[in-house]
Amino acid sequence: MSTATLTPAPTAAPQRAGASDAAPGSQVETMTMAAALNRALADALEEDGRVLIFGEDVGALGGVFRITDGLTERFGEDRCFDTPLAESGIMGSAVGMAMNGMIPVVEMQFDAFAFPAFEQVVSHVAKLGNRTKGATRMPIVVRIPYGGGIGGVEHHCDSSEAYYAHTPGLTVVSPATPQDAYSLLRAAIASPDPVIFMEPKKLYWSKGPVDTSIVAELRQAQVVREGTDLTLISYGPSLSVAMAAAEAAEAEGRSVQVVDVRTLTPFDDATVMDAVRSTGRAMVIAEAPGFASVASEIQARVFEQCFEYLEAPVRKVAGFDVPFPSPKFEHWNLPDVDRVMDAIDTLHWEDAR
């Protein structure tokens, strides 16, 4: 397995509404998403001796993307350590540790590298709490760098969130800003139940304000841009596309609202549906292939719960239903502003252009 360092090109992070509204006495710092994740891990290690961080190359190297940089040096090899290249063994060890009172935070080096551990996640991590009627909890966080936009090859750029979202017993989270990266990871580590924490690789070097005093709600979507004509619904790596498309649509006279789902499951129907009802039009934007996806589930839920409010069909702009292409062609597969704007034009506007 690769241990080379891949450095995504800097990407502008969408600004979180209210992210700079610091709590009294707090100090807001501008940092990258990678630094925010590192800070969240360090703060969790500092505050709770039960927290352990382990995975492939997370120790001395600090991880392929340097998310765990300096943690072994600061907290010791018994708190942040390397494992063999065996994802199933990593996850099985986490299950045993969680059963014995520890809080494992494991890193899967790349999205598709996590597949050998999938049986452990589905059969044990997701089910032990229910199987034991709550007597055995699984406070495990599985960090998975995912998505494209970094010029990586297959097995390094998958969007695998639907596999986990389909599995009852798992909370699946994907931050889109440095603030949410910090706050949601802290909330995930504090959760008594398992969290799959999907980290958009292309946003690791995006920058934004981070207030470490903010406590996130794990299961709450957010309206990150107000608008009256259309609601764009997105998460993780595609939220920046939604925000850029909203800006482009505003230049054409459309007032576009943007909702960041943040937690894919359990899904925050209330926030998303209220947003859609307020505009009467909706579109879902996601990087993963569109068939049987998180995007198609959101699309279906909007149809079911908001049908009488809709002025047009709910559109979906997603990755194509193909294996992830080579770096030369990945830009054709990933949703972009042009594809979103073309879809916006089909939403039955009275002033059709």
TrEMBL record:
<dbReference type="InterPro" id="IPR005475">
    <property type="entry name" value="Transketolase-like_Pyr-bd"/>
</dbReference>
<keyword id="KW-0560">Oxidoreductase</keyword>
<protein>
    <recommendedName>
        <fullName>3-methyl-2-oxobutanoate dehydrogenase (2-methylpropanoyl-transferring)</fullName>
        <ecNumber>1.2.4.4</ecNumber>
    </recommendedName>
</protein>
<feature type="domain" description="Transketolase-like pyrimidine-binding">
    <location>
        <begin position="31"/>
        <end position="206"/>
    </location>
</feature>
<dbReference type="InterPro" id="IPR009014">
    <property type="entry name" value="Transketo_C/PFOR_II"/>
</dbReference>
<feature type="compositionally biased region" description="Low complexity">
    <location>
        <begin position="1"/>
        <end position="14"/>
    </location>
</feature>
<dbReference type="InterPro" id="IPR033248">
    <property type="entry name" value="Transketolase_C"/>
</dbReference>
<dbReference type="Pfam" id="PF02779">
    <property type="entry name" value="Transket_pyr"/>
</dbReference>
<dbReference type="InterPro" id="IPR029061">
    <property type="entry name" value="THDP-binding"/>
</dbReference>
<dbReference type="Pfam" id="PF02780">
    <property type="entry name" value="Transketolase_C"/>
</dbReference>
<feature type="region of interest" description="Disordered">
    <location>
        <begin position="1"/>
        <end position="25"/>
    </location>
</feature>
